[in-house]
Specification:
The chain has a single domain, classed as Growth Hormone, Chain: A (Up-down Bundle), CATH 1.20.1250. The longest helix is centred in the first third of the chain and has 31 residues. Helix content is 72%, strand content 3%. It is mainly alpha-helical. A hairpin with a 2-residue loop joins strand 4 and strand 5. It is globular and about 65 Å long. The strands form three sheets. A two-stranded antiparallel sheet has the order 1-2. A two-stranded parallel ribbon has the order 3-6. The model has no long low-confidence stretch (mean pLDDT 85). It contains 15 helices and six strands. It starts with 5 loop residues before the first strand and ends with a helix.
Length: 429
C-alpha cells in the first residue's frame, strides 16, 4: 500500500531512501576525492597506473549491480540486499586504513555496491500510485537528497586526510556508510512492503513477471551506449580534472590555499542549488503542454557538459602553460553540473519507468552496467592526460560529450514508441 502521508510534499519513504543514499554518496565522493591523490602521493603510483586503478574501481562499482540486481529481485529481496551491501561497503572503507589491503578493500566495496545500488533507487517508484503526478519528478528530488552527502564528503574526508592522514579520511567514509544503514533500518516502516517470496513447489508455476518488448530494449540499448560514451568525459572530474586542479590551478584565496579535494564539493553543491529552480521550470512547461522527452533532455545535458569542457580547453590555451585562476574551475562546475542534471537523473528515471513488472532492480542494474562500461573506459581516457597537451585533452572530452548528445538525440523516436507501449500494457493489466 502506498504511503500517502508526506514530508516536504513527497512520501516519507523518499526521505528515508535519499538519506540512506546520501551517506552512500558521502562514502563514494570521499573515495573519489582522495583515491587518485592517495595513490600518486602516498603509494607513489604513476599517473597512468593510478588512472587505470581508479577507472577499474569506479567501473566495477557499477559492474557488480548486473549480478546484484537479479539476486535482489529473485532471492534476497531489496531490503536484505541493501543491508548486506551497505555492511560490505562499510567494511571495505575501513579496510582502506591499511595500505596493503588497497585492492581487496576496493573489491569489497564494489561487491557491496552491487547489492546496494540497484535495490535502493528501484524502491522509489514503489512509493507512488501509478497516477501520482509527483512520480515524474521523484528521481530529481532523490538526486538532490543524495548529493548532500557528496557535498559534505570532500570537506570531511579531505580535511581529515590532510590534517590527520589519508586513512582517517577513508575511515570517515566507512562511518558514513554505517550511518546510512542505521537510517534505512529505522525508517524502513515508511517503505512499501516487500513482495512475498514464499517457497515454490516443484510443479508450481513460476510467478508471472513482465517482459521487455523490442522497442523498449532498443531504447534502453541506445541510451545505454550513449551514456557509456558520455561517462568517458564525465568521470574525468575525479581523475584528470582532479590532477589539473592540484597542479595547474592557482588555488590561493588571499593568503589561504584552497585544498584540492574541496573543489569536488562544488558539483553536489550546485546539484542542490540548481535542482529546485530547474524542476520548477519543467513543471511550468509541463503544465503548459511542453514536455521534453527523456532522450532529448539528456542530449541537451550532454551538450552543456561539452561546453563546460570547451571552456577549460580555452582557459588552458589562454594561460600559455601558467596556472589558471581557481575561478575558472568554479565556473566549469557551474556549467558542468547544470548539464549533469539534464542527463543522469533523467536516464535513471527512464530505466526505472520502462522496467517490466517484477524486474525493477534488474532494469536499474542495467543502467548501472552502462555506467560500469563508461567508467572503465574513462580510466583508459584518463591515461591520455600525460600523453597530450592539456588543452587538447579537454577539447577531446568535449568531443566525447557532443558525440553522446548526437547518439541520444537519435533515440528520441524509439523512446516515444516505448513509452506508448508501456502505457498500453499498463492499461491492459
Amino acid at each position: 500500500m502506498t504511503d500517502t502521508r508526506a514530508w516536504f510534499g513527497q512520501p516519507r519513504g523518499l526521505t528515508v531512501l535519499f538519506l540512506t543514499n546520501m551517506w552512500e554518496q558521502f562514502s563514494y565522493y570521499g573515495m573519489r576525492a582522495l583515491l587518485v591523490l592517495y595513490m600518486t602521493k602516498a603509494l607513489s603510483f604513476s599517473d597512468g597506473w593510478s588512472s587505470l586503478v581508479y577507472g577499474t574501481y569506479t567501473g566495477c562499482a557499477y559492474l557488480t549491480p548486473i549480478v546484484g540486481g537479479p539476486i535482489a529481485d529473485r532471492w534476497l529481496g531489496k531490503r536484505r540486499a541493501i543491508v548486506i551491501g551497505a555492511s560490505l561497503m562499510a567494511l571495505g572503507h575501513f579496510m582502506m586504513a591499511f595500505g596493503p589491503l588497497l585492492y581487496l578493500a576496493l573489491a569489497t566495496i564494489a561487491v557491496g555496491n552491487g547489492l546496494f545500488l540497484p535495490s535502493l533507487p528501484s524502491q522509489v517508484g514503489d512509493l507512488y500510485a501509478p497516477d501520482d503526478p509527483r512520480r515524474s519528478w521523484a528521481y530529481n528530488v532523490y538526486y538532490v537528497g543524495i548529493n548532500l552527502g557528496g557535498f559534505l564528503a570532500p570537506f570531511v574526508c579531505g580535511t581529515l586526510a590532510a590534517v590527520y592522514g589519508w586513512h582517517y579520511g577513508f575511515g570517515a567514509a566507512g562511518i558514513g556508510m554505517l550511518a546510512g544503514l542505521v537510517i534505512y533500518l529505522v525508517g524502513s516502516r515508511y517503505l512499501p512492503p516487500e513482495p512475498t517470496r514464499a517457497p515454490r513447489k516443484r510443479d508450481a508455476p513460476a510467478p508471472e513477471r513482465g517482459s521487455f518488448d523490442r522497442t523498449t530494449l532498443l531504447t534502453l540499448a541506445g541510451v545505454a551506449l550513449s551514456v557509456m560514451v558520455f561517462r568517458g568525459a564525465y568521470e574525468q572530474v575525479g581523475n584528470a580534472l582532479n590532477k589539473w586542479a592540484d597542479t595547474g590551478v592557482d588555488r590561493h584565496l588571499g593568503r589561504f590555499v584552497i585544498d584540492t579535494t574541496w573543489f569536488q564539493a562544488l558539483n553536489p553543491l550546485f546539484v542542490m542549488v540548481m535542482t529546485p529552480a530547474l524542476l520548477a521550470t519543467w513543471v511550468r512547461r509541463a503544465a503548459a503542454g511542453h514536455v521534453q522527452r527523456a532522450a532529448r533532455r539528456m542530449a541537451t545535458g550532454a551538450l552543456i557538459v561539452a561546453a563546460a569542457y570547451l571552456l577549460l580547453a580555452g582557459v588552458v590555451w589562454a594561460s600559455g602553460g601558467g596556472l589558471a585562476h581557481w575561478g575558472w574551475l568554479f565556473l566549469f562546475f557551474v556549467v558542468f553540473t547544470f548539464g549533469e542534471l539534464f542527463i543522469l537523473p533523467t536516464g535513471l528515471g527512464l530505466f526505472a519507468r520502462l522496467a517490466p513488472a517484477g524486474r525493477g532492480a534488474t532494469t536499474v542494474a542495467a543502467w548501472f552496467a552502462t555506467i560500469f562500461a563508461g567508467s572503465f573506459g574513462a580510466g583508459a581516457v584518463g591515461t591520455l592526460w600525460t600523453r597530450m597537451p592539456h588543452g587538447a585533452y579537454f577539447a577531446l572530452l568535449a568531443l566525447l560529450a557532443a558525440i553522446a548528445a548526437a547518439m541520444l538525440w537519435s533515440t528520441d523516436a524509439l523512446e516515444q514508441q516505448a513509452v506508448r507501449n508501456r502505457r498500453a500494457i499498463a492499461e491492459a493489466a
